[in-house]
Design brief:
Distance between the termini of chain B: 52 Å
Distance between the termini of chain A: 21 Å
Oligomer: heterodimer
CATH superfamily of the largest domain in chain A: P-loop containing nucleotide triphosphate hydrolases
Radius of gyration of chain A: 19 Å
Helix content of chain A: 25-40%
Structural class of chain B: mainly alpha
Radius of gyration of chain B: 20 Å
Number of strands of chain B: 0
Strand order of the largest sheet of chain A: 5-6-7-3-8-9
CATH architecture of chain B: Orthogonal Bundle
CATH class of chain B: Mainly Alpha
Helix content of chain B: over 70%
CATH superfamily of chain B: ABC transporter involved in vitamin B12 uptake, BtuC
Number of domains of chain B: 1
Strand content of chain A: 15-25%
Shape of chain A: globular
Number of helices of chain B: 14
Number of strands of chain A: 9
Order of helices and strands of chain B: HHHHHHHHHHHHHH
Largest interface: A-B, 26 and 23 residues
Number of helices of chain A: 9
CATH class of the largest domain in chain A: Alpha Beta
Shape of chain B: globular
Number of domains of chain A: 2
Structural class of chain A: alpha/beta
CATH topology of chain B: ABC transporter involved in vitamin B12 uptake, BtuC
CATH architecture of the largest domain in chain A: 3-Layer(aba) Sandwich
Largest sheet of chain B: none
């Protein structure tokens, strides 16, 4: 990260976790505005937890997250697919239109402009003609396209993506990568959790490698050096299930 | 022929006021119960509804203990007990290793036993039967106003929470990321469930109050895919079951509450067989399309 980059999301000594167990431990750093950053790390490294913290779904156990130049409501968050009830009878159009929530809330009507917005988003992800189908009829890849369409409709300044290309075929991945590139070109700040280093190299400028604690931060190419990755794996393997209370002084 | 139809369908209601009262009460219950039942079903909370309907019993029983078969006392007791169990089971599920289903099952078994014990302590077996199976053929003005009031409040309530409730049902994490509506919406919904169970309790009793919610909702799911249409079909099906059930009870001397629920059950079985999403017609008569 260059020093002159304005920081959009800053964390200071941040600890996030569940049931007092830290999943992200004493993390200090920040993500640059208008830059696509990937968060890398082995399973259980706290990547999704970090995104939940930034998205406001999880309150910090310690330290803090500061947002610079935008408010929490300008964040759009794409969690992993598993949390959606796809048997619920809702049409693709209505599902994508949920992305309008910040504009229309619980009672606002969906007018022509909103309708056009949703239609354009569906076109952008290649789901034209699916408007009236129920979400339960979509394949995994099509569902992920619908999730991206909802992000387009949300029109957010900061976009958080949690393993957006998991279990998605190659063609869908390429289409969605184009969309992320477009968001970047539009000046949006994108933070994405990825496992695929090739995609990380193609899409992102910066990378944060974590294993609960920060292992490395900087240009993607440097961060994914093998010694860093090996160090991250070792840090996760040494995790103690019966940890004592952390007495590390706040930085 | 017309005379025969008139005697079969109209005359029971034209001649007897208690039949007209039962008709109004049961149809109002069916309409209000439709959205409640559809959302309980879609949120996979069918058994929660069942457990809650038993959970209101000790509250109503304490009201009965204090004031006899008094509508306000038993209503308030039922509401308090229902809300206490809804909140209590949720709290137990969050604070312990038990899932919400286990917590509810524990609450409702204790509630049912406690309620029956309390009623038996003071009252006769007839009173106990009233509490367990309701008195749809003996609805007085007070009970009708209560049921109509609950139905009205329910429809307005759903108008207010409809969109957040759908969002909370499909994608709770998304709703949490755009609004802090998840928890309040769930609470309002549970409040509507309890209110409708208490209303249905007077007509159908604690053991069958949930019948007009779940059976028409399950039937409607077998016919339509659209959510709004599903609620409409459930309301229509429930009202039909109320009318047919009351007529059956009149002509064949059946107990009215169970006759209504049995009719709803028959509609469910027929829907299961012949519904568009049913087992027979849905599978056999609708060959798959070309790929």
């Amino acid at each position: 990260m260059d020093m002159q980059d304005p920081i959009a999301i800053e964390f200071a000594d941040l600890t996030l976790g569940y049931d007092r167990h830290p999943a992200v431990h004493h993390l200090t750093g920040g993500f640059a505005r208008g830059v696509t950053t990937v968060v890398l790390g082995p399973n259980g490294a706290g990547k999704s937890t970090l995104l939940k913290g930034i998205g406001g779904l999880l309150a910090p156990l310690g330290g803090r997250i500061r947002l610079h130049g935008f408010a929490a409501r300008d964040i759009a968050h794409l969690p992993q697919l598993a949390e959606i009830d796809r048997s619920f009878p809702i049409s693709i159009f209505d599902f994508v239109a949920l992305g309008l929530w910040r504009r229309i809330g619980a009672f606002g009507g969906i007018g022509n402009e909103e309708r056009r917005k949703v239609g354009a988003a569906l076109a952008a992800v290649g789901l034209e003609g699916f408007e009236r189908r129920a979400i339960g009829t979509l394949s995994g890849g099509q569902m992920q396209r619908a999730m991206f369409a909802r992000l387009v409709v949300q029109d957010a300044t900061v976009i958080l993506l949690d393993e957006p290309f998991n279990a998605v075929d190659r063609r869908t991945t390429e289409d969605l990568i184009d969309l992320v590139r477009r968001w970047h070109a539009e000046g949006r700040t994108v933070v994405m959790v990825l496992h695929d280093h090739d995609i990380a190299l193609r899409l992102a400028r910066d990378a944060l490698l974590i294993a609960r604690e920060k292992v490395g931060f900087g240009p993607v190419g440097e961060v994914i050096a093998e010694e860093n990755l090996a160090r991250a794996r070792r840090m996760i393997e040494s995790f103690d299930d019966h940890a004592h209370i952390c007495h590390r002084p706040a930085a | 022929m017309v005379d025969l139809l008139h005697a079969a369908l109209i005359q029971p209601f034209a001649e007897f006021e208690f039949m007209r009262r039962a008709l109004v009460g049961a149809v109002a219950l069916a309409i209000a119960a439709a959205p409640v039942g559809v959302f309980l079903m879609l949120r996979r909370m069918s058994l929660t509804g069942d457990a809650m309907s038993h959970a209101i019993l000790p509250g109503a029983a304490i009201g009965y203990l204090a004031a006899g078969l008094s509508l306000p006392a038993m209503t308030i007791g039922g509401l308090v007990a229902g809300i206490a169990v809804a909140v209590g089971a949720g709290a137990v599920a969050r604070a312990s290793v038990l899932g919400e289903d286990v917590a509810l099952a524990a609450f409702y078994l204790v509630s049912l036993a406690l309620g029956v014990t309390i009623v038996s302590m003071k009252g006769s077996n007839v009173d106990l039967l009233h509490v367990l199976f309701g008195t749809v053929l003996a609805l007085d003005d007070q009970a009708l106003f209560l049921i109509a009031g609950i139905a009205t409040a329910t429809l307005f309530g759903f108008a207010v929470i409809f969109r957040p409730l759908v969002a909370e049902s499909v994608d709770p994490v998304f709703l949490a990321s755009v609004a802090r509506a998840g928890a309040p919406v769930h609470l309002v919904f549970m409040g509507l469930v309890v209110m409708n169970l208490v209303g249905a309790f007077h007509a159908l009793g604690t053991l069958m109050a949930v019948g007009l919610m779940m059976l028409p909702a399950a039937s409607a799911r077998l016919w339509v895919d659209d959510l709004s249409a599903m609620i409409g079909v459930a309301a229509g099906g429930g009202a039909l079951a109320a009318i047919v059930g009351l007529l059956a009870s009149y002509h064949f001397g059946l107990p009215a509450g169970p006759a209504i629920i049995l009719t709803a059950g028959l509609v469910y079985v027929l829907s299961l067989a012949f519904g568009r999403r049913g087992l027979l017609v849905g599978r056999l008569m609708r060959p798959h399309l070309e790929a």
